[in-house]
Write a structure and sequence with these properties.
Layout (H helix, E strand, L loop, with lengths): L1 H11 L4 H22 L8 E5 L2 E4 H17 L4 E4 L3 E3 L5 E9 L1 H5 L6 E8 L2 E9 L4 E6 L4 E3 L2 E3 L11 E4 L9 H12 L4 E3 L4 H9 L5 E4 L4 H13 L3 E3 L7 H4 L2 E4 L1 H14 L4
Helix pairs in contact: 2-3, 5-9, 6-7
């Protein structure tokens, strides 16, 4: 009984957020070095499909192994929720949410727009996040309440309030093609009312590019928690708003996400909620 109480207290004991962030950055650097060595060198036998046109490679799996092993060497008691290996050790108040390679199709084709995303939740609140783009040597980081950074320099969300001048990013619902009619109707209305739009292929980086004002905003549907966990915190810490298509905080569960400054966010919510009925 005494042992059980001691174990429970240990699980609830707060860790140093900076130590957690440093560990995440180190893990991303290890995985990033491996991905840079591997990019462009995959053979057909190293590429599988989880479902049609949803690829997974030996690089995804090896990157994840490198990340998880590094985390567990520092925080063996923490839970892990990773894209390829799933969830394990659920007792901890801490959970690491890992996407070892976001933008696998870009990676396979040697397009240098892919990322590693590592986030940490503490008692169901996002605590820290790292998104690394190895080809450009860019590392986006955030700790809750301490701001957002790109290569250790502070970043802020765009202050552009004129929706007609907004430069946005999106992702096509290639795994949810039944949503194409609603998506294309919403896309058309957004497209004709803004300046430009891009589809680059890594939701984690789209969120970070929004956080550092390269984009005014980003929207997509059909995403998974590991796609958005770190990037959403980085946007929020940069001063941006993040929600689902209806202004709610269920984007991790639903996979519907909108991120932008508050003004652009409001415009996007108004349009998207009109075409996608509330879930």
């Amino acid at each position: 009984m005494i042992f059980a109480s001691w174990k429970l207290a240990l699980l609830k004991m707060p860790e140093d957020p900076q130590k957690i962030l440093n560990t995440a950055v180190e893990a991303a650097q290890k995985a990033g070095a491996y991905l840079l060595e591997t990019a462009g060198n995959l053979i057909v036998d190293n590429i599988d499909e989880k479902r049609k046109n949803d690829f997974v490679t030996i690089a995804d799996k090896t990157s994840e192994t490198l990340i998880v092993e590094h985390i567990q060497s520092r925080f063996p008691q923490h839970s892990v929720f990773a894209e390829e290996s799933g969830e394990f050790n659920r007792e901890s108040a801490y959970q690491w949410i890992i996407d070892p390679l976001d933008g696998t199709t870009n990676f396979i084709r040697n397009i240098p727009f892919y990322s590693i995303s590592i986030a940490v939740k503490y008692q169901n609140q996002m605590l820290a996040g790292v998104v690394s783009n190895p080809p450009l040597n860019e590392v986006f980081t955030a700790i809750k309440g301490q701001g957002a950074f790109l290569n250790n320099k502070p970043i802020k969300i765009s202050q552009q309030k004129d929706f007609s001048r907004a430069f946005l990013a999106t992702g096509f619902p290639h795994q949810f093609k039944y949503h194409t009619p609603q998506y294309m109707s919403a896309f058309s209305e957004i497209f004709f009312n803004i300046a430009e739009v891009r589809r680059l292929g890594s939701a984690a980086l789209d969120l970070c590019y929004t956080a550092c004002a390269r984009f005014e905003g980003f929207w997509e549907l059909g995403l998974n928690p590991w796609d958005v966990a770190a990037g959403s915190l980085i946007v929020q810490e940069a001063g941006g708003a993040v929600s689902d298509f209806y202004g709610r905080q269920f984007f991790m569960e639903s996979g519907y996400i909108v991120a932008a400054n508050k003004t652009v966010h409001s415009h996007l919510i108004k349009i998207l909620s009109n075409y996608f009925k509330e879930r």
